[in-house]
Amino acid sequence: MTPVQLIFLAVAAVTLAAALMVVLTRNLIHAALWLIVTLFGVAVFYVLLNAGFFAVVQVVVYIGAIAILFIFAAMLTRRVMQDTGPQLNAGSWLAGLVAVLSFGGLVAVLSQWPGFSSQAAALPEGADPLVQLGTALVSPDAYVLPFELASVLLVAAMIGAITVSLEKKP
Amino acid sequence: MIPLSWYLILAAALFCIGLFGVLGRRNAIAILMGIELMLNAVNINLVAFWRYRAAEGIAGQAFAIIVFAVAAAEVAVGLALIISIYRRRNSVVADDINLMKG
Questions:
Q1: Domain-located, residue B32
Q2: Can you give the residue range of the structural domain that contains B88?
Q3: How confident is the model at residue B52, as a pLDDT?
Q4: Were A62 and a residue from A33, A39, A80, A167 both cysteine, which residue would form a disulfide, CB within 3.0 to 4.6 Å?
């Protein structure tokens, strides 16, 4: 056991436990707070994968924007679903069965793949992945079109969200 | 060092927890939280495959960035829809939202 492996296992345990709390806890605000813990755990995995930029984006976009949006939505709709009453629907045992079966199926399929337990090769010398990513995102022969499309999608989603949630004045 | 399998199993577990949240919860906001967990699991997989299988290219990271953008757009529209439905029908329970039911 190397220290990195111990860090991985500890963070994985915290992340999965927090994810379970997200889907099982009764109080929606608490679920949103557990979601923040899960997202922090995922950010740690990005650091372990030598993708520090993704860890920063995860903290800024997911925790800074999306989790706060969830907390606001939970507070705005708080009156209807108090913490009493069932939070899981009638078919939730079936949902649990589907989840466990798909986990088993995924692991079974993945473990037959020859590259399943491959080790990470050393990163190429002299090439900063962040510089490469930035260049690729704006270079015409790489990913400039998906990048611009994502911008258009974000603007469209923002306008759509405002339009949908606007209160109609009579 | 950490083998690739650990990341894949972790992402599969996170995905299945999110799947349970999507299928089993009654509250529409909790369903959206489950979708966020699933998207995060997919992103871990994308970055792990980039690091272990194709670290000399950049396609995996570019793909993961697009997933971030789509997740942000999805949650903004989803929460706006839920708040709009809450205003009109005073409910966020997914079973009650059956306007299209024949």
A1: yes
A2: 27-92
A3: 86
A4: A39
B2 within a domain of the structure (yes/no): no
List of chain A residues whose C-beta atoms are within 8 Å of the C-beta of residue B89: none
Which string of DSSP letters, residue by residue, matches A46-66? HHHTT-HHHHHHIIIIIIIII
Domain boundaries, given as residue ranges, for chain A = 1-82, 130-170
C-alpha–C-alpha distance, residues B69 and B25, integer Å: 25
Compute the Cα dihedral for A99, A103, A108, A113 and give only its sign.
positive
What is the distance in angstroms between the Cα of B28 and the nearest Cα belonging to chain A?
A: 10
CB contacts, 8 Å: A78 with chain B: none
Q: Looking at the domain assignment, is residue B9 inside a domain?
A: no
Q: Is A34 on the interface with B (CB under 8 A)?
A: no
Average pLDDT over residues A135-154: 89
**pTM for the full model?**
0.89
CB contact at 8 A, B19 and B36: no
Q: Which value does ipTM take for this structure?
A: 0.90
Architecture in CATH of A1-82: Up-down Bundle (1.20)
Report the number of distinct structural domains present in chain B: 1
**How many angstroms separate the CA atoms of B47 and B50, rounded?**
5
Is B14 at the interface with chain A, CB within 8 A? Answer: yes
Q: CATH code at B32?
A: 1.10.287.3510
